[in-house]
Design goal:
Oligomer: single chain
Structural class: mainly alpha
Helix content: 55-70%
Number of strands: 0
Mean pLDDT: 93
Number of helices: 12
């Protein structure tokens, strides 16, 4: 990739007279998604896959990061207004994963790591128990083998261990009942986690989370009476949030894995990715004047894959 601004001051002056449209804004925000994913494909992926002897904390950070980058790869395939609901859903999930990474990175102790490991076991037990209880007095489909789930739930030692984990990490309520968690952290609501991490994350929550939830849940709250041209705004906002979050994910991974040692230009690369959207705005205005695209950051030998599977 090239990490240079291709525009001159004369370019900026010519572009100022071109009005911005909602579609132009959405396309520019989408370019931020595309550039961020290309950076992963051509720069980060080979380096991170070469990391050996990962500690449990690093492995957990990477597990969250790989889920996040998969959402970016999915969003990269969705650049039409008709996809706005899926874009919104992916952006909200990406926000939650980035928030998890930020929360874990902020905690320099092993408490969060222990909670994540405990929650994984607790949640799998909880879901298995729900399935077991549903079919306890029903005939299960012939192709639905419940033997593994039944053995898992009926194992009294396993149940005792799970309940001990719940009591250790999430405690009991005032009536002495176990507090079964909905999230691995000590903060069970999303805004509480965002507030814990800091103002930028809480601001993202307030600005975006409710609206993204409208588009991924049932009902008409997000669309009733909305003019058609606002759907470009919806996609633009979701692209912007996704771009901002994945860059924060890069920063967190960079700090946790000390990537600046392996990539001397690490800070400059992130600075370029942060400004791609602004450059794409400018490029879109110039193209509206009939000029060719100038924001060509891929090298001639770099071919953006049609399908990216970041594993």
């Amino acid at each position: 990739m090239r990490f240079e601004c291709p525009f001159s001051e004369q370019d900026r002056v010519r572009a100022q007279g071109v009005p911005l449209t909602a579609r132009m804004l959405a396309n520019a925000q989408f370019e931020g998604i595309r550039a961020s994913l290309c950076y992963w494909v051509f720069h980060l992926k080979p380096i991170m896959q070469a990391l050996l002897n990962r500690k449990p904390r690093e492995q957990t950070i990477l597990g969250l990061f790989y889920r996040a980058i998969r959402y970016v790869a999915s969003i990269r395939r969705l650049n039409a207004v008709v996809h706005f609901q899926v874009i919104a859903s992916a952006a909200r999930s990406l926000f939650e994963l980035g928030l998890d990474m930020a929360l874990l990175s902020q905690d320099k102790t092993d408490d969060s790591l222990g909670r994540i490991q405990a929650f994984t076991r607790v949640e799998r037990h909880r879901v298995a128990k729900k399935i077991y209880e549903f079919y306890e007095n029903r005939v299960a489909p012939l192709d639905h083998d419940l033997s593994g789930i039944q053995a898992f739930v009926r194992d009294s030692a396993n149940t005792a261990e799970v309940e001990a984990l719940v009591e250790k990490h999430w405690g009991r309520d005032k009536n002495g009942k176990l507090v079964w968690p909905k999230h691995w952290s000590a903060f069970q609501d999303t805004r509480g986690r965002a507030r814990r991490v800091g103002d930028p994350w809480e601001e993202r929550y307030v600005q975006n989370y409710y609206k993204l939830s409208w588009h991924m849940h049932s009902g008409l709250a997000g669309v009733a009476g909305i003019p058609g041209d606002l759907f470009d705004v919806f996609t633009s906002e979701a692209f912007q949030l996704s771009h901002d979050v994945i860059l924060d994910c890069y920063r967190i991974v960079g700090e946790e894995l000390h990537l600046a040692r392996a990539i001397p230009e690490w800070t400059d690369h992130l600075d370029f990715l942060e400004h791609v959207v602004g450059m794409a705005f400018l490029d879109g205005r110039l193209q509206a004047l009939g000029e060719p695209a100038k924001l060509l950051y891929l090298e001639p030998h770099e071919r953006e894959p049609d399908f990216c599977q970041p594993v």
